[in-house]
Amino acid sequence: MEQDASSDVMPTEKRKKRFRPPRSLLMLGRYTLMRGFALIVVVAVGVYLTVMIANMGGYVDEIRKGEIREKVGMEVRANRDLLRKPASVINKYIEERVAIEEKRLGLDKPFLMRSFAYLGNALSLNLGRAERMTSDSGSSEVRLIILERLPNSLALFGSASVINFLLAVFLALFLSRRYGSVLDRAIIALAPLSAAPPWFYGIFLILIFAGIFGILPYGGMLDAPPPVTTLGYVLSVMKHMVLPLMAWLISGVFIAIYTWRTFFLIHSSEDYVELAKAKGLGSRMLERRYILRPALPTVITNFALMIIAAWQGAIITETIFSWPGLGRMYYNAIGQFDTPVIIGLTVIYAYLLALTVFSLDIVYALVDPRVKLGAEGSQ
Amino acid sequence: MRRLKNAYATLKQYPSAVGGLAVIVLLIALSIYAVISIPYDKAVFLWRGSEDIWAENPKYAPPVWINLFRSEKLPETIVRDTADIPDKEQEVISSTIARTTAILEFDYPYKYFPNEITIFFDGDYSTRAPQVALTWITPDGREIPLKTASATRNGRYSVWSDRELERAAFGGVGPAIGLFADPDTLHDPQPVVLQGTYKLRVQMTTFEEGSTGDAKLVVFGQVAGLAGTDHRRRDLTVGLLWGAPIALSFGLLAAVGATAISFVIAGIGTWYGGWIDAAIQRITEVNMQLPFLPILILIGTFYTTSIWLLLAVIIALSIFGAQIKTYRAMFMQVKNSPYIEAARAYGAGNWRIITRYMIPRIAPVLIPGFVISIPSYVFLEASLALLGLGDPTLPTWGKMLNDSYDSGALYKGYYWWVLEPAILLVVTGLGFSMLGFALDRVFNPRLRGL
Fold first, then answer.
1. Does ipTM exceed 0.95?
2. Which of A208, A268, A343, A349 should one mutate to test binding to chain B, selecting the residue with the greatest count of B CBs within 10 A?
3. Which of A42, A254, B224, B236 sits between 20 and 30 A of B420, alpha carbons compared?
């Protein structure tokens, strides 16, 4: 796409760019900064919302208070002099110690103030310790647990998104040229398949390919004894990736083709396309410069929306396929009621969403000349 | 009315619309039937029910109709109760002690062994429960004495797991096989069922005046009900039936709530413009990038799994969704049209213009998106249920999938348990989205022209 953006700019625009490169770069920079800033605000709002939701039930605070009480109780039990004293004295001592500790940690302050402290912690990825879950290396640091799973999620999600995007753009262009053909009708008729999320098709795929035919694994990411060689490792991961990817594509690709085909059709009925045709330009050139090019910003915006939806779907798709990523971890954390992990994961999801949108925004800016020319209004 | 007729006439040209409409009508009929045949309270009671309600159902049994596709039929559940035998042989031993003998008889024409065999007792006594001597009589006349049990209230004797019997009578073979096997093949790797008429002699000795007792023999089959059963012996028909009204009402309410409210908000924002519009746009941008499902999961985990409260949260989070931008673009076009100008000229107020001029003008264009969004909410509920955040009291299709998934149904081959709710879900989804996509072509002139 980027290559497209730099080599494929319309002639008039090229001239302008040659004359005043600093201005367009400045615009691009300003745009990037603005979007980045907006997204940081969004992440902060999302995380704050998470903190509020998790705290309104009093969970975070109750947990911390419980921890303090337990710690003080252990101290008292270890203190022999104290244990000989009457129960009322011991209780009073415990209450005093708890009050001091709570004050030290700021738990006595009003919630509004504490919530900002939590927000700061969460935003700086200071996610605390898990209650029950541990990482494979044995740490109970939430950040480490998450970091360990993140690459697995990114591998699956990244390849799914890329394949989805390329396949859909290619097929949509192809079909818009053969509008009304049997293939076109067949693929468009499949668009309603997108009503169901990927995990749903996952169930059927597991049933067919793992349950009945037994040619692909039920789930997981690696064969039972992990392969030793790098090649074996990669092949094993790829084998386990087939079904999740298929589920993802069945659920996602047809609606994308349907929508984007419509965009392309609209653009191909424009007058300038007719003119280009009349000039005798080849169909490839026509497609790339006159149809794909102006439609691309719309397609990318649409793709961003799809990706946002897909991130959420990842939670359940990974669960169904036992893929050891963030989504599966989310499921386990809910099952074990591990609050710090749930909150930490929500924070990470907010970040990942923002990062995805941000990178798509930059691609958008590269593709849409209006941004560079400073004519960018609201999208 | 005429407009409806016209719309239907146009729709008839699209086979997918007719198909989708048919599915929706069927689903509505199913829902009405479910609500009428099993009232809400009863459905909740049945679905939550302890094992006692479903005690006579086998566990993990596929539906009865799979026998239609098999040459060798799988056994169905057989129930025989001494309470149904009117004239029992009665023997008075003393003034307080009496003995009744009843014979429970049944045919067993199957080639497969039953799942489980259990005898349920129902004794009526004040302090001393009746004693029951049980004798199993095979078609070839062998008499196998079973355990002597006391017929307590709601007592039960699980014959199939009686270790004593297993050891003493069958030399280590489980009673469910031993009682029904041809004795010559008992220790073969594949024991053969002895077909014919089996009997269970029940000798009930009561120790009090007026005390009675009954025994009910249940030979659990390998198939049950129209939809099969699950790990808690529940008849899945109840869940499948009741899943329909819940899915429909959830999807419809969420779609109506989210679409209608955001539509009105978009209309207001466009009309007033200025800071109201800007605020709506910024809120939408923030809201669109919030992690929607994780927030729902948080709420589901920490507060409530009530399906209706989650519905409210879903609506609240969806109002400022991507669709608001689409609506805004449409309203923008309408805002400057001459008929609005005319309305302004005769002195119509802001509110009147929004509700009487702008919204009715765009509403038809909104219908396809509305219809398409219904199944996505149905699946959202299923997704939440699959994560274990489903409403614990209500039977929903997603909850059934969650149960089957947790019980490893995919791996153990309980296919009916997965496929039945899944097929209903996909049929619902396809029905609505097929209709929606057809409507899209009807209502969107931009697409019709192509």
1. no
2. A349
3. A254
